[in-house]
Design brief:
about 675 residues, alpha/beta, eight-stranded mixed beta sheet, 13 helices, about 30% strand, elongated
Length: about 675
């Protein structure tokens, strides 16, 4: 048997006090005179032996009571086998510092309550125990085995970050770290895992816990005062095209995770110099979508934010976004040598398009620089070099519009189609070429027509190219009566369009209809390369930078209080950056940053991951059942719902022996009282 507080055992010296009192209990005797002592002597002998027995029993009860109290304060426990083998006892403390732990508890934020609970555990542990204190970072620093002083010092350095970890992942990481410590000649004895978390359902991973009977587990569940949260989830523009002087419609979604319906919730919107307030009603456990409309008359880059006021969690109340409005769209038209149809004349109808024409024999890779849309007009036999250039262009989010010539080489054409994820041409179709329907629901045609016609019935084609749509990721935009597509789109790599007909007169009179220039202009509108409105910190996504200078200096982000160099890369001919990885999560805070190489390129808005915003937590019983179902026998689950000061956490004691000794002390005290009161 061992003791948590062995220094209390010195109190056993106090047992000498009642023994001394018993042995030297000097009393003054009163002399009584009797006429005869014949019978008194016998009674006196019997009474003296009885009193001696009584005094001995009282002394024994008193000594046992004091001994029980001393042992209760010393807190005895029986060590397990590993401890007896001489290994170092290790307490692995995981403090969940994800954003959900910033919810309000009874005695402050949950992360503060968890930190104080960990502090009490460390302070009450025996001096020879080693500690591994880790958070969601799980970096090399947190692999170290620490002393009491070092563990208490590291606790103060743990701050909330937007990084989530599953509990099984943390436990496995701790076990690997302990194995590495053993290789460095640190013999490990008993291992105890203390898990301080709110146990979110969408990130705890309790369903994949692994069986373990070699260690003790202490999940400590921290419960917020209110299971509610109000936050901005996402935002988007109704029209993907933004031009100067055009009406813009900004949509946003507000989520109410609370148990009560909310009315007249104020949402503040700032876009440059524009400030608007919108009031929305949000039913319980659902979301509401709303929007504002405005006209941006200037060109340039604009930054904005949408804010909602919440009383429980604050890190997701504001959502940042950035976008740009450009003066024009750059279009490159590549014509076949004998192509008669002038596509440039259609684009020149709007000053928004800056069009450059080239013949197919003159084209070089430099011609694709700073271009948004490439139109291949009357292409018959694309060379392998051209296929490579178009593939690289679309991989950098460029758009390509393919119009076959009258006599295409199917082999080279299909090589190009495969690269652009478009359907392959299989032959000529001379029947069923009347247009049957237009896919109005596709964003390509959204807002393009005043009224949707169910019966288009446009007979403008004598023949078309038959294509195999099943072997591609393309979707139909215009369908013929034969069921074959006339106009398809693929967004697998950049955006690629294919007109399944030639503009030659032998194929029909499609160029004389209003639909043909409409789809050319619409493709030009949608091809304007736009950077995403926002980036989520930690997500495996790339942010394209279309106007980076030719310097080899990496792009960096500069905020009001911090600077950060993201992961730099390329996609096709376009420079990209990424905000994935632990370093980005640890360093970046939600907000608007300047994009800089040698000069300022633009702005980028970064937001925290909203998956932490969902207030769905496991309760104490559910956590216990999860560990039980995983066949983990040595587990003790605690709930902190009324503040950490109301919960006492004891480690290394499967049975709380101190409570047993307190009961013994009370029993011996009552025994002493009974002996003194009832034994006459």
């Amino acid at each position: 048997m061992r003791f948590v507080y062995p220094e209390f055992l010195w109190a056993f010296a106090a047992l000498s006090v009642p023994v001394v009192i018993h042995l030297f209990n000097f009393r003054r005797y009163k002399t009584l005179y009797f006429s005869s002592l014949k019978f008194i002597k016998k009674v006196d002998q019997e009474t003296r032996s009885t009193k001696n027995l009584k005094h001995l029993l009282v002394l024994a009860a008193r000594l046992l009571m004091i001994s029980s109290l001393i042992l209760a304060f010393a807190q005895p426990y029986i060590p397990v086998k590993d401890q007896l083998n001489g290994g170092k006892n290790v307490v692995c403390i995981y403090l969940d510092n994800s954003f959900s732990m910033t919810a309000k508890g009874t005695e402050g934020e949950l992360i503060s309550e968890a930190r104080e609970t960990a502090r009490k555990i460390i302070e009450r542990s025996p001096d020879n125990v080693l500690f591994m204190v880790c958070s969601n970072l799980l970096n090399g620093i947190e692999k170290r085995l620490l002393s009491k002083v070092e563990a208490l010092s590291y606790l103060d350095k743990i701050e909330p970050i937007g990084l989530r970890r599953e509990i099984p992942q943390v436990i496995e990481w701790q076990k690997v770290a302990l194995k590495q410590a053993e290789k460095q000649e640190t013999r490990i004895g008993t291992v105890q895992h203390v898990i301080l978390s709110d146990f979110q359902k969408n990130s705890s991973g309790l369903s994949i816990l692994k069986s373990d009977s070699s260690a003790y587990y202490y999940p400590i569940v921290f419960s917020p005062q209110e299971f509610s949260n109000l936050y901005i989830d996402t935002l988007w523009f109704s029209n993907p095209v933004r031009k100067p002087g055009q009406l813009s419609e900004l949509n946003f979604r507000v989520v109410n995770e609370g148990p009560e319906d909310l009315t007249n919730v104020e949402v503040s919107i700032k876009i440059g110099e524009l400030v608007k307030d919108v009031f929305v009603d949000i039913p319980s456990k659902t979301h509401t979508e709303s929007r504002i409309s405005y006209t941006e008359k200037k060109t340039g880059q604009f930054n904005g934010s949408i804010t909602v006021n919440d009383k429980q969690l604050f890190w997701d109340d504001e959502f940042y976004f950035s976008y740009s409005i450009d003066k024009n769209c750059q279009v490159l038209v590549i014509n076949e040598e004998n192509e008669k149809q002038n596509i440039k004349s259609i684009l020149d109808l709007e000053s928004y398009y800056v069009t450059k024409e080239k013949s197919i024999g003159e084209i070089t890779l430099n011609d694709f620089s700073n271009v948004d849309l490439v139109i291949m007009n009357g292409l018959n036999d694309p060379s392998s070099g051209l296929v490579s250039m178009l593939n690289e262009f679309t991989s950098g989010r460029g758009s390509v519009f393919l119009i076959p010539g009258s006599k295409p080489n199917y082999s080279s054409w299909n090589a190009l189609s495969q690269k652009l994820y478009l359907p392959m041409i299989t032959g000529i179709s001379e029947s069923g070429n009347k247009i049957r329907s237009i896919n109005y629901k596709d964003p390509f045609f959204r807002g393009m027509f005043d009224k949707e016609k169910t019966d288009v019935s446009m007979n403008t084609f004598k023949k078309t190219f038959a294509v195999n749509l099943s072997n591609s990721s393309a979707s139909k935009l215009i369908e013929l009566q034969s069921g074959k597509p006339l106009f398809v789109k693929s967004s697998q790599s950049g955006t690629s369009y294919l007109l399944c007909s030639s503009l030659d007169e032998t194929f029909g009179s499609f160029t004389s209809t209003s639909l043909f220039p409409s789809i050319i202009l619409r493709a030009g509108e949608l091809s304007k390369r736009q950077s995403p409105l926002y980036v989520t910190i930690g997500e495996e996504t790339v942010y394209p930078i279309y106007n980076k200078s030719k310097t080899e200096r990496p792009v960096q982000l500069k905020g009001d209080k911090s600077e950060f160099i993201p992961k730099n890369g390329t996609r096709g001919s376009v420079h990209t950056i990424s905000l994935s990885g632990t370093e980005a999560i640890e360093t970046l805070k939600a907000g608007i940053f300047e994009i800089i190489d040698e000069n300022r390129i633009g702005f980028i808005s970064v937001n925290n991951d909203r998956r932490e915003s969902k207030v769905e937590l496991f309760n104490q019983n559910e956590v216990g059942e999860a560990f039980e179902n995983a066949d983990i026998p040595n587990v003790s689950v605690k709930l902190v719902a009324e503040g950490q000061s109301s919960v006492d956490i004891d480690l290394e004691k499967p049975f709380e022996y101190w409570r047993l000794f307190v009961i013994f002390a009370l029993i011996f005290l009552l025994t002493e009282i009974a002996l003194l009161k009832f034994w006459k």
